[in-house]
Amino acid sequence: MCGRAMYRNNGRNHMYYRCSSRNISGAECGQNQAIRADALENTVTDAFLGSVGHLEVVKRRFVPGVDNRAAIEDVTRALAELREDREAGLYSSELGKQEYRESFLRLEARREALLSAPREPDRWEDEPTGETYRERFERLTEVADRNKELRESGVRAIVHAEELPKIPDLVERLLGINAANADETDKVRTVHRGRVALSFPMNLGRIILKRTAATA
Question: What is the pTM of this model?
Fold first, then answer.
């Protein structure tokens, strides 16, 4: 385990993930034992779906808020200009006076309507899709799409040269918490599966929900 990324490569009979140090002259880590792609992908996928596969995919829709402050300023400015024109001698005829009054009343009514409208902040609305993440993952037939989903969810797989000891379920959960007072985003769960050490955030469900906002 050297910490470098692994990439998919063609083998004689199968696809493999190999350490990227193999392609860097003089940088081979000596621990770059390849792992079959299907074995690694299945291991990571099973762990991911075991955590969030039952959750429903929620599409987040952005709803712009209502803020009339800029429009109110525009109307107030128009009223001030109208007064200035009147004081400068414009609208001096009877018809002009009538047009001035109508314009002023129209702008005042517009401002009152804007002032009475409630301000609402921007917000996101959750829209259930009726599809679970397990069902969605089954539809992602391309490996690149699945890997992208896993990376963006904070899932990390570290491949070791040798088999790792099995971690009891309770210890798996406890080892992932950096400290008792750690922030929720700092907590990860560690799982050993064969040569693979998997880590993913304890708040994985919330991370996924948040990420849908950026892609909706």
Answer: 0.49
